[in-house]
Each structure stands twice: as structure tokens, then as C-alpha cells.
């Protein structure tokens, strides 16, 4: 209401002159004759047209009663609203004798039908900055901006009836259209009450404010008590406490409670970019120092995860700067889904779920990334996942002008660790992703320790994932991505329960030996994949068991999530009256179809002589799977043997005997 306050200050200035003129003013002047003069003075001060279209009357006495109708202030040219401010009527009671001393004391001040429109355009220009150098403007601004509580006029009763406040900021997706009404009264000390309803970013909005009396605000040296309750859609906020210097917003001492269905819904409110979450409830202590607002002692839950720490927002720069140090003692992995564009409520809740696909297709909001800068450290001591025990999540997220860097990104899993960096660049219209992750010595036995067949699982996983792509969704990023994925499982075993989950004819077709309920043991499983323009191609896919060498080739098309893989088992020793047939993996990632191709057969024993040819390409990824220790690994030994001259000569000389005529060798062997 600052604009209306400046106009009111101009009116009161004229009244002061009239009072100074004594009783002559009462009989010689019709107050309506002053409307043009007052409006002209206000127009010059604001460099914006100001008009008083209605009646102006003054009832002299003690208190002086002033009534003015039809005040309006023009808006900027680019706005759809003609007027920035309108006032149907102003009724003021002004005590005479304090006025003679230059003090304003109002027994009552009533605004009827005020309307105030505050807005920004798409370029960020606002309508409350009044252009043009004018000393009257500066004087009006200085008079309207008190420096301390004592500069506020004494207002014993303030009433705002049928008010309307409109605030629009398309750069932050904010559009408030709220009714405003106030009342004071009650037994004992009076209170100021303000109630408003309307819309905020397209959602129902309500606001209720209770504070000490306006006289308390002005004269009492004690901190000003304040209580605020607000609701925006399903987001609820409660603030209660005091402010030592409310005019300067110094000495802020407020307790805050915030609850809602989804933390991402606070972005239009506070401008803080947060991922989609499950329902949450947070509380803490809000303070302010200079341009920095700090939320300390934060404690609460997000979904099934606890969350504590400190968050600070510095609003003094070009963009808000968010810093934080957050900790979760018990973190549910499902509550991290929003960080990768998936829904924390499960795959059935995807906004863009389509045709049974599993890759998240929620659009990345680059405007959120550009709205604020951020430097937040987050640690999760225990991470609970439905598939495996996780621990010790340590990450730091730095957001700089739309570019988000996660470094480190470190997560303990199965006694090992996944660690590396990820960058999401939202400065361009289509965001880009670059990630480099290492898989460090994950133990399968520990990975499955909470499952029924934990005792039958074994092996050590190492590897690396390097991906770069562009897209407006996670699915789009992967559909255009280039990179490579390499992994190895050394000295492993797989529970018979898991193996029996496959079709029996599939296992038999691969020639993998099963012995009752004993786990299936293998020496090494190596995967070397190349990713180009969203298509994953096998450079090498090898499972080495004591009796059989299983190889695979084909593609996984991330553009449509289609599988097209052929898997073939070859016995290491010649066997009579036995044949192997290819296993075909088709379908999609969400619904794979595994079957046997009975139209092709390959003689057992072929793999033994072709081992060098099959494994030679894997030598290029030996540094990738090297655990960095002196221990001898099955995978490392297998590859080293394949690189020996004898294996090379044997494979080169007899490789044609290892496959049936007309069938190509695995793509990984053509080097």
C-alpha cells in the first residue's frame, strides 16, 4: 500500500497547511477545489498520472474527519491493468493538537475498496519503480520509508475493507490475486488481524496474520509479536514468534512449520529448486542477518526419510544463493527418485508414463535451475532400498547460473562404493548431462544379504559408467547419449533359486551346469558396452563358468527401450551327442522376452579353441576392472591368458570351427 500511503501523505500535508492557516481555511475553501492541486503534486512526485475523481470533504473538529473518494494511480504501458492502484474511499480521523506539533495521530484509518497491482513482465521489469529524476519523488519516497518504529504514525485502529492485492511475476511463476481485510479489537490488548484469500500460481491461497496493535508496533520497545498461517494448494505454513525491529526486519526470531504433499511445490513460493517428493513435514527456527535468511535447527521428515540441518538463502545478489548442510540418519532410497526425474510414489505415478516404458520421462525444468544458485552438502548415514542395503551417501550439489554439478557423488553399497561426478547443464534450451561413475568392489554376498538366497551369492563387481547426452527428460537424455559402460564380476556364484527362476530350457540351451540346489559358480562375467546416439551395442559380453563360455551380442535401443540380444553357450571340452542353441532376448526393458532359437545349433567344444578370439577385445578394458590390488583376479587372469600368443594362434587358426557355417562371430571378436 506504499503508493496509497504517499498519496495520503500528500493529503495530510495540505491539511497541515490548512490547519496552519487557522479558521480562515474553514470558511474560505471548498476542499474539492484542492483535488486537482493534490493530484498534480502526487503525479509529479511519482512521475505517474494520479487522479482524484470523487468527493473530498473535511469535517473540522477534534478529531478532524477526512473523506476522499475515487483515487487512482496509472500503471505502466506494458501492463494489462489500466491502473496500478485504486481506492474507492479513504476515511481518516486525525487529532488536531498533535498535528500542530507535526505529529500524525489517527484514532481510525479506514480504506474501502483498495486495489493494488504489483507486477513484473517477462524481462523482469517491475511497475513499482517510478521513472524520471524528480526531487519531489525522492522526498515522497523518503517520507514513506520510516527508518525505525518511532517514525510510524500512531494508528489506533486500521480497517481495510473489500481490498484486493494482485502480484504477478512470470519469471517465477507467481500470480497472487488475493482479497485483503483487516480488523482490530478483542478483550485486553488490541491486535492487528489481516485475512486474505485468492490464487497463488494457479492454486487456492489463504493468509491469516495476527500481530500486536499498531500502537504497540510504534511505541513498545519489546519485540513485535507475530503469527502467520498460510495455505497454498496443499502446502501449509505456520510462523510464530517476534521481530525486534519490524520496520527494518532486524532481530527476526520466528519458529516455522512447513507441511505439504510435495516439496517441489514450494518453488513458486520461495524460488528454491527442489525435486518431487512424497509428503513432508519440516520445522525449524528462522533468523535474518543482513540479506541472509537462515533456517536453523531444521528437523522433520520427507516421505519415510528423516531430515535435519541448516539452510540459508542470501537474497542480496543477482539471484538468490542457497547454501545448506543437510543430514539424514535414515534415508529411504525411494525418496531419492525425484533427483533422477522419476516419481517417488512409484512408476505408476509417472506424469508421462507411456507404453509401459521404465525410463523417467518427466520434463527437466530448466527455469528452476536458472532461478537461483546453490551450494548444498547432503549426507545420508543409512540408505534403505528394497533391493539392497545402502549406506553412507555423501554428495555436494553446486548450482551456478543453471549449471548443476554433483561432486562428489558417493554411495556405499554391498561393502563397496559407487562414486564419481555428474553435471546437468541447464543454461541451454535443451539441457545436457555428463556423468562419470566408478563401481568399486561391490560384494554380491553383501548386496543380497537381506534376501532369502544371500548365502549362495558371491563375487566382486567393478566397473565404470561414462555417459554424455542432451534432452529435455531423463529418457530424452539417454535416447541421444554417447559413452561407454564396462563392468566385471569376479569369482562369482549365483543362487540356484535365482537360476531356477529362468526357463529351464534357457539354462540348458546355454550349457550351464546345475547341480541340484547348489549355486551356479562362475569364474568371471565381463560386460563391455558402447553407447552411441542412444543405442547400446555389445563390444563384449562374456560369462566364463568352469564348463562353459557364454557370449552375447546385440543392442539395447534406449530410444524405444527395445532389446535385441543373442546369447550363446559353448562348452570348453568337446562333448558328444550334445548341442547348444542361441537364447534370444527380445521385448523391452520393462517387459523382456527370453526364449530359445531352436532353428540354430552349435557343436559343443567350439568355445575352447575360440577362446582367444572371443576374449581378445576384453584386454582393452582390463584397467577398468583392475581392483588396484596385487591379488590375482579370475577376470584379469582370463584376459591375460587370452592375450597370450598360444591363445591368439589357436583362436585365429581354428576359430571357424567354433561356429556353424553361416553364423557370424560375436561383434566383440572382430578387431
Write the topology of this structure.
Elements: H1 2-20, H2 24-28, H3 35-46, E1 50-52, E2 56-59, E3 64-74, E4 83-94, H4 96-100, E5 105-106, E6 108-119, H5 135-144, E7 154-155, E8 158-161, E9 163-169, E10 174-185, E11 191-200, E12 203-212, H6 214-219, E13 224-232, E14 235-245, E15 250-260, H7 267-270, E16 280-289, E17 292-302, E18 305-314, E19 321-328, E20 331-332, H8 366-371, E21 373-384, E22 389-400, E23 403-413, E24 416-425, E25 432-443, H9 444-447, E26 458-470, H10 474-479, E27 482-494, H11 496-500, H12 504-510, E28 520-532, E29 535-544, E30 548-557, E31 562-571, E32 579-580, E33 583-587, E34 592-596, E35 602-603, H13 606-615, H14 622-625, H15 634-642, H16 645-654
Parallel strand pairs: 5-7, 6-8, 6-9, 19-21, 20-21
Antiparallel strand pairs: 1-3, 2-3, 3-4, 4-6, 9-10, 10-11, 11-12, 12-13, 13-14, 14-15, 15-16, 16-17, 17-18, 18-19, 21-22, 22-23, 23-24, 24-25, 25-26, 26-27, 27-28, 28-29, 29-30, 30-31, 31-33, 32-35, 33-34
Helix pairs in contact: 1-3, 1-5, 3-5, 13-15, 13-16
**Count, helices:** 16
Low-confidence stretches: 20-25, 139-144, 603-611, 627-632, 650-671
Percent of sequence in beta strands: 35-45%
Shape: elongated
Instruction: Label the structural class.
Output: alpha+beta
Give the fraction of residues assigned to helices. Answer: 10-25%
- What's the pLDDT, averaged over the residues? 79
Can you summarize the main beta sheet? 31 strands, mixed
Radius of gyration: 37 Å
Number of strands: 35
How far the N terminus sits from the C terminus, by CA atoms, comes to 77 Å
